[in-house]
Amino acid sequence: MNITTKEFGIVDEEKVYLYTLENNRGMKLSCTNFGCVVTEILAPDRNGIFENVVLGFNNVDQYIQHKTYFGAVVGRVAGRIKDAEFELDGKQYILPKTEGNNHIHGGVKGLHERVWLAEPIEQKNAVGMKFTYFSKNGEEGYPGNVELTVTYLLTNDNQWIFTCHATTDQKTILNVTNHSYFNLTGQVKDDILNHELTLKCDRFLELDKELLPTGNIINVENTVFDFRQGRKIIDGVHSNHPQNILVGNGYDHPFIFTENHNREIFLKESVSGRTLTVETNQPCVVLYSSNQLQGDFTIQEGVQARKYLGLCLETQGLPDAIHHPHFPSIVLDKGETYELKTVYSFGVEQA
């Protein structure tokens, strides 16, 4: 097992490094201390050919220039916060409005654009990186000094283990995720429309025209939101369901798990044979089929940005939970520890 390091750019006069983790089976995961961005994952297909299965850029400047959140740790609070404000214990907190009238993905300079401290991790059957960041009281409008630790481990079982721990010195809100865009075709040879996804979720959140949860929780039965027996992403793109049309023809919805730590997400791509199994301790996954991905730029394979190039599986708490008391709470109090764990297992199915 091996870790290599190289310079990746400079941000705010701080050096940014790219760390490449390699296990004993040839799988590699590259990540950077800028936003804990995962830039590349080389995973084998059924013929043993290693290719990149996530979207990314070749240098840090592109990550800053193009607000895609490719591969980044997003927070303090992932997703949208209605009207860019919230109340805790009778006190109102005002956040920057970064999408219309709302706040999204932690603000103008959320966790995804911060330079983190980094140190290598070497274990018997895994190598990894430990990233730490101290988010000061008032940063992007959020209360509390928050100490965050993110770890990425690459194991010899071809697993990427993502954890996040955080503590605060005063009551605040926290809901972190990783925003990787997966494409199991390898080297972005095709879009993700024919990827088949299985979710252990029987409910999803209804969204309004600003893509905020309305508070209504909808049963997936008899809709293209029912992934319990497996379904191709293209079904939602061609669907006339108002919720698919609302988000730009596809998916950008939180799905609520019926169970955890038991293959609750399974993604496969039949041509390459690649599979991805995701298990987490989080209550939901935001499924985003990159319906809004567009712009005059190319990703690291030289492919022009366009819709449906990647599939995000953002394991997290329910979006905008601070405004919906019937959602699981995302409030973190002094003396408590926030703990997130998501395991991505890469495999293959034979033809």
Question: What attributes does this structure have?
Answer:
carbohydrate metabolism, globular, Beta-galactosidase, Chain A, domain 5, isomerase, 351 residues, six-stranded antiparallel beta sheet, 3 helices, Ald1_epimerase_CS, 28 strands, nine-stranded antiparallel beta sheet, Aldose 1-epimerase, mainly beta, Aldose_1-epimerase
Q: Report helical residue fraction.
A: under 10%
| Principal-axes shape call | globular
Major beta sheet summary: 9 strands, antiparallel
Structural class: mainly beta
Mean pLDDT: 97
Number of domains: 1
Summarize the structure.
This protein has 351 residues and is mainly β. It has 3 helices and 28 strands. Strands 11-12-13-14-28-24-23-18-21 form a 9-stranded antiparallel sheet.
Structure description:
Beta-D-galactose binds at residues 179-181, 252. One of its GO terms (molecular function) is aldose 1-epimerase activity. Its EC number is 5.1.3.3. With 351 residues, the protein is mostly beta strands. The chain has one domain (2-348): Beta-galactosidase, Chain A, domain 5. It has three helices and 28 strands. The strands form seven sheets. Strands 11-12-13-14-28-24-23-18-21 form a nine-stranded antiparallel β-sheet. Strands 17-26-25-22-19-20 form a six-stranded antiparallel β-sheet. A hairpin with a 5-residue loop joins strand 23 (265-268) and strand 24. The relative contact order is 0.17.
